[in-house]
Amino acid sequence: MLAAASMEDEKTKSWKKLVNVSVSGAAGMISNHLLFKLASGEVFGQDQPIALKLLGSERSLQALEGVAMELEDSLYPLLREVSIGIDPYVIFEDADWALLIGAKPRGPGVERAALLDINGQIFAEQGKALNAVASRNVKVIVVGNPCNTNALICLKNAPNLPAKNFHALTRLDENRAKCQLALKAGVFYDKISNMTIWGNHSTTQVPDFLNAKINGRPVKEVIKDTKWLEEDFTITVQKRGGVLIQKWGRSSAASTAVSIVDAMRSLVTPTPEGDWFSTGVYTTGNPYGIAEDIVFSMPCRSKGDGDYELVKDVAMDDFLWGRIKKSEAELIAEKRCVAHLTGEGNAFCDLPGDTMLPGEM
Ligand code: LMR
Q1: pTM to 2 decimals?
Q2: What is the pLDDT of residues 233-279, one digit of tens each?
Q3: Which of 35, 94, 87 is nearest to 56 (CA)?
């Protein structure tokens, strides 16, 4: 019996090399949905064993033990190892994927600049740790807000890793935009394609209805109500996170976990012909004329090898470009606020007054 079990074990191990997935904020609500999806094979498929390495804080360590117990008790055949800890230099060791979820939420009376600084410190530290111990081709997805600028801080502190491998999660916004278009057009969600979220994961983000398609047709041919597209649709997507916090009393968790799975799957499976997905990536040599050296959400395609290319042939009009410039300005201002964390001198914080984190209303 034992021999048979260990032979089976060997067979499982021989399927594919173990993938190491490190997750920060692992005792939190998003992770509580995400980890079980990862362990069940939703991202990497049913023949890919994985190890989960869970990062918490001193305060959350006991809860993290509980998370590990539940994962073990679920008997996932693909889950070969679960480890927990509070030292990123240990938990990120050999990481093939780093899902950086843990961040301080903005509490009452905390200025945005202060939050950028508090969370920025976390991501600077984690960037250094990834730089030191992660796989040289680690893919990093930053979820903790403000995720674009946190991703920028993280990659600047990891100079030995490819900047291209750092992502800020805007897939949740893409999913929200697809949902709104599908509801308005009376079609099922999977009929919406080519949905780009441009810019920052904040209320300046730009859901692009110029290039998106419904049943393969331009959105504007199907939904003729331009006022709805420019106002209701755009604002609903931009403010969805905040409205959800008002209703739930906490940030989105299940849908964020789903969107992390979607974002990862988009990188490990070939993008369907003609379609694309959105992710916040480092702007270096982008074909659109967006400022360099920030993390900006743009349309991407992947061959399924974990890498991606920017989509070049997208249409632009004055409305879209004007909105993109506003989100770009916000990210440049955020970047100035964290100059002390990116090695670019003294910080100077002059954030535009009307810009908000997704959760702010
Ligand atoms: C969301 O978009 O749901 C979250 O990023 C909101 C937040 O601020 O936590």
Answers
A1: 0.94
A2: 999 999 999 899 889 888 899 999 999 999 999 999 999 999 999 99
A3: 87
Report the pLDDT value the prediction gives residue 113, as an integer from 0 to 100.
Answer: 77
- Give the side-chain half-sphere CA count within 13 A for 320: 16
Of all protein residues, whose CA lies closest to atom 3 belonging to ligand 1? 241
- Sign of the Cα torsion 14, 135, 270, 180 reads positive
Atom index in ligand 1 nearest the CA of residue 172 equals 2
CA separation, residue 358 to residues 227, 318, 355 (Å): 23, 25, 9
Residue range of the domain that includes 332: 170-341
Other C-beta atoms lying within 10 Å of the C-beta of residue 330: 25
Determine the distance separating the centroid of ligand 1 and the alpha carbon of 246, expressed in angstroms.
11
Q: Residues lining ligand 1, judged by CB closer than 6 Å?
A: 145, 172, 241, 244, 251-252, 357-359
**Domain membership flag for residue 307:** yes
| Burial label, 263 (beta-carbon count in 10 A; 0-12, 13-18, 19+) | buried
Give the neighbor-by-neighbor strand order of the sheet with 192-193: 192-193, 213-214, 217-218
- Atom of ligand 1 minimally distant from the CA of 357: 8
Distances in Å between the Cα of 20 and the Cα atoms of 17, 167, 269 are 10, 18, 18
Specify whether 263 is located in the same domain as 246: yes
For residue 334, report the distance from its CA to the centre of ligand 1, in Å.
17
273 C-alpha to center of ligand 1: Å?
31
Given strand 309-310, what is the order of strands in its sheet? 79-85, 50-55, 19-24, 97-100, 139-142, 166-168, 277-282, 295-301, 309-310
The answer to whether residues 94 and 116 belong to one domain is yes
Do 38 and 151 belong together in one domain? yes
The widest CA-to-CA distance across the chain, in whole angstroms, is 69
The pLDDT tens digits for 183-197 are 999 999 999 999 999
